[in-house]
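Hi W.,

Here's what went into the run:
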Amino acid sequence: MSGQMISDTRVLALIETYGANPDMFPDAERSAARARLADHPERFAAALETARQMDALLGGMPEIVTPDTLRSALIASAPQAAPARKFSWKLPVWIPAGALASLTVGLFAGMSVAQPATTQDEQAEAAVYASLGFDTYTLDLEEEALQ
Amino acid sequence: MAFSSDLDRITRAAAGDPAAVSSLVDRYSSGVLALATRMLGDASEAEDVTQETFLRAWKALPGWEPRAKFSTWLHRVALNLCYDRLRKRREVTMEILPERTDPAMNPAELLDQSQRVRAVEDAISHLPERQAAALTLCALQGHSQAEAADIMDVSVEALESLLARARRTLRASLLERAAS
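Here's what came out:
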């Protein structure tokens, strides 16, 4: 409202609302109110004096600072970063013992059911049959043997 | 550590960055505590409100809407928590003090400094709650009219009305105390 008119009533209302310091007035009305106050100081002297008293009381209020204990509590209540997961090589004793037992049982079972080794000729013949798309070579041999 | 904005602080705090958390606490806890102290007139309750306010803030961080202003949101939460506590205290009837406008009397001259501070703190905490909030936000904490109105969820015109009434009521209350 700079350069615009402002009424005495409005200036009085601003003083009553925001106090005696025009810096506290709303931006849009500050310049016009300053000009009005400068032009007619006698009209606003009483209102300004009353407002100054209240401003002094409010301005004398001590600043409130967060106590350290409260600050710590506020920080402690905040979300924490998820801790990075550490891989540990220290496994419980039963895990390697179990693994060893399983390995032993597996080897024993494998050796028990293992097929006897075939000759090199049989292996070569099987490979030829397989490459030609036959997968019943062993069966055919067994049928021939029966005949 | 430097942060580019509140949104930067919020994003990092949500991920658990301790520096961002400390920065938010250092930036806003005193304002929240001061608002609650003035509204409630009780330091212990004010600390409880501050803790509750920040707990809610921490919960809100992961889904924070970037356009929202953290300061306004935080003060609004604190103010609503204060309103809740004041409503629970309603069994204590608030005395409506008669308005006195004798310009010849100056409350500041009638009380010594420490009495004055206590009297003003007490008188503010006994103002009608919305008047106390308007006065605290604008006159004591330096929020702009627009910010204070936003925090209180009222128009700037309504805020002005509350402020003017708060100052009148406060003056009358202090004169009453000084005279008694």
